[in-house]
Amino acid sequence: MAVPGDKVRLLKQYVEESSSIVFFGGAGVSTESGIPDFRSVDGLYHQQWKYPPETIISHSFFLRDPEEFYRFYRKKLLCPEAKPNAAHKKLAELEAAGKLKAVVTQNIDGLHQMAGSKQVYELHGSVHRNYCQKCGRFYDMEYMLHSEGVPRCECGGVIKPDVVLYEEGLDDATIRGAVRAISQADMLIIGGTSLAVYPAAGLIDYFTGKHLVVINRDATPRDASADLLIQGNIGEVLSGI
Q1: Is residue 193 annotated as involved in ligand binding?
Q2: Is 112 a catalytic residue?
Q3: 155 known member of a binding site
Q4: Residue of 88, 112, 124, 211 marked active site
Q5: Are residues 43 and 150 located together in one domain of the fold?
Q6: Per-residue pLDDT tens over the stretch 94-131
Q7: Which range of residues forms the domain containing residue 138?
Q8: Statement: the pTM of the whole predicted model exceeds 0.85
Q9: Residue 64 CB: number of other CB atoms within 10 A?
């Protein structure tokens, strides 16, 4: 999908005019890194499993059938080969330049930090953090990848991903930080998200700044209220500025 040059030029102008940009992103930011999108064709929701993915990655399923949960977790949610793409790198570059104040992400892959972003609010947690439910000790993604069955700590406790599962609430401190960043921003870029997952998508209601930009391949509920709407791949668009 070719992105009109005038739209990229306007985006560049907005970035130049702004001093407190926040980026709010979703799965579409990471698909260019080879991480499957939950909701697109050939994404996680189209895989052949005994249960639908939203059932498997729910709190009640984790308690009921941890063996199957971890089989899915290792195969579908751990992507050790994934590397930051053009979008991640550009956002880190904008932060280093003092333009971007925060990234608010629904993704759990840690690619923003890998690209060099420092202020990242991970609304749904991270696969890079896994903790023992008994003693609290943390384990990295590598440990989880090479574990078998239900991973256990040295103390015998079950290790759980520091990821927000369906039926679980978001972390209060993370929400507060994200709300503060969005409410103080003079420009909000929404990218690579259908804005279908709540309560995360509701956080953009706190934006009262000057420029609202939506960059997404498909339509979103906020298209009509955007000052600039660009339908295209997020990496391609951002690398243009």
Answers
A1: yes
A2: no
A3: yes
A4: 124
A5: yes
A6: 999 999 999 999 999 999 999 999 999 999 999 999 99
A7: 37-78+128-163
A8: yes
A9: 11
